[in-house]
Q: What sequence folds into this?
């Protein structure tokens, strides 16, 4: 019978990090099942077919190092499930040469780059004889393939003679190698001398904390800050926190970079600092936290390996992470979010008989980030006049493009321009996406997406994001999407959404509802339900659960879906809605928004337009401030005219406003949404005055 771990498989540094990040109990139970003191048969077979292996160890001065070992086919053997023998070649100049003895622990990482498979173990050296290292396994466990870039190893005999360079700082050549890397290996260690552990733990790798691990990301994910300092993002992983747990108690690390094109090895050791909180995290996609490495010493071994590797592709999880260059672009885009930027149409697709999608790329830099469901404000010169509109993005935040999907309206100036005039290569201006209607794919509560007509666009973005984000988080938010259209000819994104459903492993379900299907349309194939979305339909397809509802479509549809959802017992706070059209959603609220009673509208007022330097009298019959300003020759930016997009926001310099309808867009206390606002009456003031930065 195989032995089991007598106590926790994690030392107290790992446990502290797990506790800090809220996964302690889950990982304790999981760890006891998957972390063993022997190797399963599949691990033994895996190690024996590897052409190389990574080792982590501590030198006599207490510095961690990561080392590269290789050999002829079958250089690793496993005589039993508790033992390994390595008939290995160690590169000349590697610090491991000076560290091999029978009293030392080694951490090993077996990694197969073509299949992106890896397993880890910690072991004690029992004997070293010539090139053979005999090991007794202490801990063994498997790892998922996250962030491993696929590569094929190619034998290669260097013409250049090997070179060994001792380093205490990063020169230009070394800095370039690091900055362009998409992979490195990190060794860490902690030796526990306290009395909190029992005798079993004190003689195990739990107490030693020896580890060597893989780190991967897009090229440029390691930043060279100076000639001795690197900053590195830490991504969502297996929650063991072996490396961070060691860092917490012994802030030292050994890093190993490989030049996969030339066969160089860069081996470094130094001190580390974990940055649990950092302003830079906001701009680095996928980063959970950062850590910095401060170089103590290192060795650069040029032309050290007799093989190279051919890059075959990023891991799917790597694809949804960032780089420091992209982080800088994200930060710059945030600073320019209220400025107009240039983009170009790169692709145009007919999605249905009335809907076209336009794919957009930034002309310089990268595209600002957004949340799934938000809209893009675009501007174009149409027939000699600047026109501004907002269109919901139908692309995902993980896509490297923007996609707006627009219905051809009979009298729509901008929609007609996009459908009939815009060509690939033409440019538009845009402002960073915004909007309060968006979904969080990481929430556990299941989501119901209800869409009619062109209201499907934010739902496509949400569905794409939920499926794509699952690659990073390894979990999918349960989602049911109900799409309504007049007939199948007007049904957009049918194939795309069905493909997403197939990818979701049952977590995304699409119900197609058609009110007037064509005679050739087949129920069960081209659509699921004939008619309209009703309370009875929702009751039939939704299991009893605590849902969040997302509703988008024409105003009457949105109001109807809201009323039906409330009647089904869904709380108002669980219903997110966005309507296309001038009418706003009438919610069933017991109090005014935020519990604040707004000031009543004024009968008359004096309005000063500070930027245009003139004053004008206003009366209640003049309507909202957007209509009033246009009537007096000004051209404020606008799009929806219903308080949804926020395009018409301006600074309020003096006075108060009354909102005839509450804007659904976000705005600050010193901002006015012109299309919804009127001057407000202030108590004790005879003459109402309003001053706007317009």
A:
């Amino acid at each position: 019978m195989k032995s089991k771990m007598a106590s926790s498989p994690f030392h107290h540094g790992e446990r502290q990090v797990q506790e800090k990040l809220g996964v302690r109990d889950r990982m304790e139970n999981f760890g006891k099942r998957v972390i063993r003191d022997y190797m399963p048969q599949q691990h033994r077979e895996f190690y024996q077919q590897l052409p190389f292996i990574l080792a982590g160890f501590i030198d006599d001065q207490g510095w961690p190092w990561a080392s590269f070992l290789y050999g002829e086919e079958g250089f690793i053997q496993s005589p039993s499930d508790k033992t390994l023998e390595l008939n290995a070649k160690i590169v000349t100049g590697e610090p491991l040469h000076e560290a091999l003895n029978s009293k030392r622990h080694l951490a090993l990482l077996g990694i197969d780059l073509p299949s992106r498979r890896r397993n880890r173990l910690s072991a004690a050296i029992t004997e070293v004889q010539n090139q053979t290292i005999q090991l007794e396994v202490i801990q063994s466990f498997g790892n998922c393939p996250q962030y491993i870039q696929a590569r094929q190893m190619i034998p290669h005999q260097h013409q250049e003679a090997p070179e060994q360079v001792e380093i205490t700082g990063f020169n230009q050549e070394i800095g370039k190698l690091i900055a362009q890397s998409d992979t490195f290996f990190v060794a860490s260690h902690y030796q526990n001398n306290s009395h909190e552990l029992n005798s079993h733990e004190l003689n195990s790798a739990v107490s030693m904390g020896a580890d060597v691990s893989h780190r991967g990301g897009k090229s440029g994910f390691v930043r060279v800050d100076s000639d001795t300092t690197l900053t590195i993002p830490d991504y969502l992983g297996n929650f063991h926190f072996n490396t961070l747990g060691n860092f917490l108690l012994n802030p030292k690390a050994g890093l190993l970079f490989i030049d996969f094109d030339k066969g160089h090895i860069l081996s470094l050791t130094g001190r580390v600092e974990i940055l649990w909180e950092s302003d830079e995290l906001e701009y680095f996609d996928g980063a959970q936290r950062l850590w910095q490495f401060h170089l103590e010493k290192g060795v650069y071994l040029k032309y050290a390996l007799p093989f190279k590797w051919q890059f075959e592709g990023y891991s799917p999880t790597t694809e949804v992470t960032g780089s420091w260059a992209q982080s800088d672009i994200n930060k710059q885009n945030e600073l320019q979010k209220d400025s107009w930027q240039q983009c170009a149409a790169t692709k145009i697709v007919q999605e249905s008989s009335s809907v076209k999608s336009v794919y957009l790329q930034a002309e310089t830099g990268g595209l600002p980030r957004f949340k799934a469901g938000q809209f893009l404000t675009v501007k174009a010169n149409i027939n000699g006049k600047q026109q501004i509109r907002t269109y919901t993005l139908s692309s995902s935040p993980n896509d490297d493009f923007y996609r707006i999907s627009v219905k051809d309206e009979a009298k729509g100036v901008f929609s007609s321009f996009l459908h009939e005039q815009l060509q690939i290569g033409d440019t538009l201006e845009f402002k960073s996406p915004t909007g309060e209607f968006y979904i969080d794919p990481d929430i556990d509560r299941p989501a119901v997406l209800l869409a009619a007509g062109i209201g499907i666009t934010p739902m496509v973005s949400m569905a794409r994001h939920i499926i794509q984000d699952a690659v990073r988080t390894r979990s999918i938010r349960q989602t049911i999407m109900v799409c309504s259209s007049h007939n199948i000819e007007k049904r957009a994104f049918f194939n795309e959404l069905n493909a997403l459903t197939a990818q979701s492993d049952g977590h995304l379900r699409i119900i197609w509802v058609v009110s007037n299907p064509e005679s050739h349309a087949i129920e069960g194939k081209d659509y699921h339900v004939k008619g309209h979305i009703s309370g009875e339909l929702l009751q039939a397809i939704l299991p009893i659960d605590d849902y969040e509802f997302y509703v988008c479509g024409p105003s009457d549809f949105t109001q109807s879906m809201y009323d039906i959802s409330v009647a089904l017992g869904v709380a108002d706070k669980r219903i997110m809605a966005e309507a296309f059209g001038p009418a706003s959603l009438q919610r069933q609220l017991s109090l005014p928004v935020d519990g604040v009673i707004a000031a009543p509208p004024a009968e008359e007022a004096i309005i000063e337009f500070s930027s245009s330097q003139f004053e004008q009298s206003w009366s209640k019959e003049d309507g909202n401030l957007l209509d009033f300003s246009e009537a007096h020759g000004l051209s404020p930016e606008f799009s929806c005219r219903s308080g949804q997009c926020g395009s018409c926001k301006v600074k309020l310099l003096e006075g108060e406003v009354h909102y005839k309808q509450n804007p659904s867009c976000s705005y600050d206390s010193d901002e006015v949404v012109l299309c919804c606002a009127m001057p407000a009456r202030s108590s004790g003031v005879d003459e109402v005055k309003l001053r706007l930065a317009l």
Remarks:
- The radius of gyration is 31 Å.
- The longest helix spans residues 456-473.
- The mean pLDDT is 89.
